[in-house]
Amino acid sequence: LAHTQGKKHQAGLARRAALEAKLLQQQQNQTDLSGLIHANAANSMMMRAKQQQQVRIGRPGYQHGNQRCLSFELHFPELPGGGGLQPRHRFMSAFEQKVESPPDRRYQYLLVSGEPYETIAFKIPNEPIDRSEGRFVTNWNSTEKKLTITFFFLNPSEEAKK
Q: Biggest alpha carbon distance in the chain?
């Protein structure tokens, strides 16, 4: 007796009753609509319903280019111009950072720092970065005070060679 009078049990019954009422309403709406639609439209609706009932087997196949590249452009307009100061960057593993807990090993972070600005971090996939000539480029434009960082991830075939 205590279980059927309980708050959770009553809430479950109410939720189930609401769901059944909603399903009944949808079924009634569908039968009302089928009487109003002429034969061709009804036929096409049945074809769509058949298509929607098919079992989904996953995403369709796709390809992407071999160039797996990220590029970041950062503006530092208040950075002091004298003395050749420029922003600095570094990569940080998920286990070094203290913001997200627990650490997710699927990601690493690109940190960019330029005084007096706050250090900012970008969450990127934890894949090996290609640091060969022309594949990892940083450019500091001191007149526009703009830092551009462009890098490529190693392709799995290149990774196996190393």
A: 81
Structure tokens at 138: 């940083």
Q: Are 147 and 87 within 8 A, CB to CB? A: yes
Q: Read off the tokens for 50.
A: 């058949």
- Picking from 70, 74, 68, 77, the residue whose alpha carbon sits closest to that of residue 139 is 74
Please indicate, yes or no, whether the overall pTM of this predicted structure exceeds 0.70. no
| 81 in Cβ contact with 143 (< 8 Å) | no
pLDDT digits (tens, 9 = 90+) for 10-45: 888 888 999 888 888 877 776 655 554 444 444 555
8 A C-beta contact, residue 108 and residue 93: yes
- CA-only gyration radius of the chain, Å: 29
DSSP alpha helices (H): ranges in 37-105?
39-52
Which strands sit side by side in the sheet containing 107-113, from one edge to the other? 88-93, 107-113, 120-125
